[in-house]
Amino acid sequence: MGDAAKKLPRIEINPKLCKGCSICVDFCPTNVLEMRGTCVAVKDLAACTRCQLCDLRCPDFAIQVFD
Amino acid sequence: MSVPAEKKEKISVPFDYNKYLRPGKLPHIWCPGCGHGIVLKAMLRAIDKLGIDKDNVCVVSGIGCSSRTPGYVDFNTLHTLHGRALSFATGIKLARPDMKVIVVTGDGDALAIGGNHFIHTCRRNIDITALVFTNAIYGMTGGQYSPTTPLESIATTSRYGNIEPPFDTCEMAKAAGATFVARGTAYHTLELEKTIYEALMHKGTSVVDIIDACPTYFGRMNKYKSATHMMEAMEKDGTVSVKQVDKLPPEKVAGKMLRGVLHKIDRPEYCEQYALLVQEKAQAKSK
Lengths: 67, 287
Known about the structure:
With about 70 residues, chain A is an alpha+beta fold. Chain A has helices spanning about 5, 25, 55; strands at about 10-15, 35, 40, 65. Chain A has a single domain, classed as 2-Layer Sandwich (Alpha-Beta Plaits), CATH 3.30.70.
């Protein structure tokens, strides 16, 4: 793996918009996210493959993955 | 976990939804896990693909959970009477034929209260895109059963199971004369985005039936564990793509709804016919 592959993505979560439905946590294929109370949080950023499924299925505009 | 190298290159910058949202209006009123937010995002991406100015788009809605959508989007918007969104949209389209008119409506709004307006809009074939958010329940008023509630499911007004057979929105739109009929789900987000884009590009009445989940009322009363469980059970396992339906054995297709573009034909569009008539009569008078 080169240096480019090791570069971590940036996951932006807006706690004001997250309602804690846990759709992003359940649909994440690599278990990057977890629920902390009623808001989603990043558990394992290195596992993120930037597939954007959390962003696509978030109903609340609360999460986005930046490269 | 190792990831194939070719997947790593498929990276895109996330879509900037704020471009199309009204600042300060979020968070929206929809419940946690409601599919309407996912559908709204797909709609915004599809409109972005069209590449037209925000002022040339008009979003019209009636009453209901889904009809709160125009409050959050920064287009020309109109929040109208229960079930009458399609009639208001017909007026807008006739006054401004250059405008892209999108009607956002729920299943109860479009098929029960506005059933009459729905079939007559389809019959006229006026260039309107109707997005019917089918959550199979009246969420805003407390979970009464709607025209698309499946047989035997529990609702506030059917405590022992619903005995009314549901409508098939797509069959009804097709029979009434709509020239583009499609179905999508909130689970298949990218497919939904493409379907809405195709519907927006179509000249004539286009109806997209969108299956999404209401975890608060439908899910809780029908023993779905969570919004995710509901999306997987109803949207992923309850539908089958029209592209795959021929290849699958009959037992895998039985009882499932078809997803994708179901009907597409060309028929004269109402606004064009109206302009032709006006032109013809004006010429006859001036002679």
